[in-house]
Design goal:
heterodimer; A: 242 residues; alpha/beta; Rossmann fold; 2 domains; four-stranded antiparallel beta sheet; B: 531 residues; 81% helix; 0% strand; globular; ABC_transporter-like_CS (chain A); ATP binding (chain A); ATP-binding (chain A); ABC transporter (chain A); ABC_Transporter_VariousFunc (chain A)
């Protein structure tokens, strides 16, 4: 579904992402872990087509992001770490805008807005301007907008930040369902317990370089993800669980 | 603590003015441009007020009411500073983004308030200098001043903006109170207030000559009225013209006391006002049948909703639309006078180009596209991550400018055509030429914004007030009408007929339209994708 090959992104001389390669298959929830400034958001933004990159290749469902950005974007959705949405629109106007962009039919959008809106307890607030929403409500709206066109690949940057426990639980369920139906999810998180339980595969990034990746069980072994992460953070050697 | 807060605010202002969004450090080009802009505005205003004071000093001296000169100077300063800083005061005090952060720290409310007030005070001193400098120069060269009077003048210059601050703080307090209660109509109220003040200003400027004559003719009775009713102004004037210390003390008390009282009252209410959330009646969503739009239509609707959501953005970016409608009304009201002018045979030859230029000049204050990229701000990720071609995104921005600005120009064109009764071909030109010009400014504004986008703003108003693309677009669009007229008047009047010149200009504008649009579709697209 997603192939990142030797991705490098520089800010002047600083390499935010350094020769990173990852393969994400359909059906997988792939967790992306690293300390602040490790290069997670930069990688996600490059995959989402928001940020141009210097070297490497990003292939989504067999198409290159460099040459077929539009086709790539049509089958994916991106949820940023800070849901800065169009505050001048109401929730329903925003969802309709996204649905118009993805050309979701009237019937489909009505069904999905009602389904996800009810699921996240946001339906009654959809007529409110987004400027009146709390952080959590904006996050919920961003999540609903991501699912409205049924993308195959979903990119999420810290999706659980700001969500209440019920919404967090729901999101985990939806993520699992999405992947069980053949989709794929690539998300970054600092909540290691969630990553450990939810992810089929995990990648850990440090100073722009991938230091470990593979099946969750292979990466953590008998330890907790937290222990593994802290050990790897102290260790400069690059390992591969495969 | 107060000094630290003031320093931070000044640093913020300086950074906003000089730092380009991507490059580190200050942009020298931007500094030069800003400097030129200040010099231009300064020269225009100082020249205008200098002429005004020059025409007043002699008759007042002859009538023995020199003091009225300084009363009028103070009155002009109060008005200019009040109108110029009223909305900034509201924004700086009640809508600042760091209010909650600072309130959570062990800082006195009065210090937070004073640090914000200081920013406005600097702006007021700039406004004041446009009036005080020519007033001082004209007076000292014509009448002369003693050292004590000069000293008092300096103190007056330093303290008068404090009185204005008291007024604008009070007004912003009332405004904040009102806006908290009627948040839904914030945009409409802001527009009505702004247009009201602007109308008042325009009316005052247009009537200046009439009032000047009236002032000179009725100087004595006005002086008596001021002496009896606005006694602080009278005492200010007596202090400056006669060096009267008693009057000077009375003026100082009148200027400083309101400031101290207002600051005290505001600091008492600051926490409540700065943290009040607008009372919004919750609208419960009721599912309705939905409509599917094309992607392009959805993009244009989004652009228009964004633009119309902020009164200050609308007023700064689309003043031309409002002026076109006001001008169309004025044309209909004064149709007899216009018809009389239009019937003069020497004028008739120039009628069509003049009408075209009129519409162009009035609508040149539309700079919507010049801030449309910058206004995306931290929501830029949305359109970048969606499957939308860059061409569609840029075209939707161009379309918004055209959809909003062309009708305003057409209304004025139709009014002019109706009143002047020009022929079919001429009417067509008066309708089409302003459209071509609107497109030119539309394309130019977008290109300039693609060249210098600004995303690191805290408030959207910064994009439309302080960004280089907007300033450049404004100068070019306003200058174009003047340049077109000047080129013909100075160099081509004996070589080309006005009709030939008009058609040549139309051809040049069409060529420029095509070239700029093509540049957007090539360089512009590349530039957008690299932002």
């Amino acid at each position: 579904m997603l192939k990142i090959e030797h991705l490098t992104k520089k800010y002047d001389q600083f390499k935010a992402v350094d020769d990173l390669s990852l393969h994400i298959e359909r059906g997988h929830i792939y967790g992306f872990i690293g300390h602040n400034g490790a290069g997670k958001t930069t990688t996600l933004k490059a995959v989402a087509g928001i940020m141009p990159f210097d070297e490497g290749e990003i292939i989504i469902d067999g198409k290159s992001m460099k040459t077929h950005a539009l086709e790539c974007k049509k089958i994916m959705a991106y949820i940023p770490d800070n849901p800065d949405l169009y505050e001048y629109l109401t929730g329903i106007q925003y969802l309709n805008f996204i649905a118009d962009v993805y050309q979701v039919s009237k019937e489909e959008r009505e069904k999905r807005i009602s389904q996800y809106g009810d699921m996240f307890d946001l339906t009654s607030d959809l007529a409110q301007p987004i400027s009146a929403y709390s952080h959590g409500m904006k996050q919920k709206l961003a999540i609903i907008s991501a699912f409205i066109h049924q993308p195959q690949l979903i990119l999420m940057d810290e999706p659980f930040v700001g969500l209440d426990p019920k919404a967090s639980h729901l999101l985990k369920q939806i993520m699992r369902d999405h992947c069980d139906r053949g989709g794929a999810i690539f998300f970054s998180t600092h909540v290691l317990e969630v990553a450990e339980k939810l992810c089929d595969r995990i990648a850990i990034i440090k100073q722009g370089k991938l230091i470990v990746s593979g099946k969750t069980q292979d990466v953590i072994g008998d330890e907790s993800l937290e222990d593994v992460f802290l050990e790897l953070e102290d260790d400069d050697n690059v390992n591969d669980a495969h | 603590m107060l000094m630290t807060l003031i320093k931070i605010r000044l640093q913020g202002i300086l950074l906003r003015q000089t730092k380009s969004s991507k490059k580190k450090g200050n942009s020298i080009g931007k500094l030069i441009l800003l400097g030129l802009l200040f010099v231009y505005v300064g020269v225009v205003f100082i020249g205008m007020f200098g002429m005004l004071f020059y025409s007043l000093i002699e008759p007042f001296a002859m009538m023995g009411i020199e003091w009225l000169y300084f009363a009028l100077m103070a009155l002009f300063i109060i008005l200019l500073c009040f109108i110029g800083s009223i909305f900034l005061t509201h924004h700086e005090i009640y809508e600042a983004k760091d209010n909650e952060l600072l309130l959570a720290m062990p800082i006195k409310n009065s210090d937070i308030l004073l640090s914000r007030v200081f920013t406005i005070l600097i702006l007021n001193y700039v406004y004041e200098s446009l009036i005080a400098i020519p007033a001082f120069y004209v007076y000292i060269t014509n009448v002369g001043m003693t050292m004590i009077e000069i000293f008092m003048f300096i103190i007056v210059v330093l303290t008068l903006p404090l009185f204005v601050l008291a007024l604008s703080c009070l007004f912003s307090w009332i405004l904040a109170h009102v806006l908290v209660k009627i948040h839904r109509f914030k945009t409409v109220i802001s527009i009505v207030l702004f247009v009201g003040f602007f109308g008042l200003y325009m009316y005052a400027v247009n009537s200046l000559q009439t009032y000047l004559v009236w002032l000179v003719e009725n100087g004595k009775s006005i002086a008596e009225a001021i002496e009896k009713t606005v006694f602080p102004l009278y005492h200010l004037s007596i202090a400056l013209t006669k060096g009267n210390i008693g009057s000077f003390v009375i003026y100082l008390i009148c200027a400083l006391l309101p400031f101290i009282i207002v600051i005290y009252l505001l600091s008492m209410n600051f926490t409540k006002m700065a943290t009040s959330k607008p009372k919004m009646k919750k609208v419960i969503y009721k599912a309705k049948p939905m409509k599917q739009n094309t992607m392009f239509k959805a993009l244009v609707i989004r652009e228009i909703k964004h633009f119309t959501s902020n009164a200050m953005v609308m007023l700064n970016g689309a003043m031309g639309i409002i002026l076109c409608i006001i001008a169309a009304g004025a044309v209909l009201i004064y149709q007899d006078e216009i018809q009389m002018i239009a019937s003069i045979p020497q004028i008739q030859e120039y009628m069509t180009p003049v009408l075209c230029l009129m519409v162009i000049a009035v609508s040149s204050l539309n700079m919507i596209s010049a801030s449309s990229i910058s206004l995306e701000g931290d929501r830029f990720w949305i359109i970048k991550s969606l499957p939308i071609t860059t061409q569609d995104i840029l075209n939707s921005k161009l379309a918004m400018h055209a959809f909003l600005c062309i009708p305003g120009g057409l209304i004025l064109s139709v009014a002019l055509i109706y009143v002047t009764g020009i022929g079919m071909i001429d009417s067509l030109l008066v309708l089409v030429v302003p459209i071509l010009f609107t497109l030119l400014i539309d394309f130019l504004g977008l290109l300039l914004n693609l060249w210098k986008p600004k995303f690191d703003w805290v408030n959207e108003t910064v994009c439309v007030k302080q960004s280089l693309p907007v300033v450049l677009t404004m100068f070019i669009s306003m200058g174009l009408a003047v340049v077109i007229a000047m080129v013909y008047g100075l160099w081509l009047v004996d070589i080309l007929s006005i009709t030939a010149y008009m058609y040549s200009v139309i051809m040049i504008v069409i060529i420029l339209d095509v070239v700029l649009y093509q540049t957007i579709q090539t360089w512009g697209i590349q530039q957008f994708e690299h932002i």
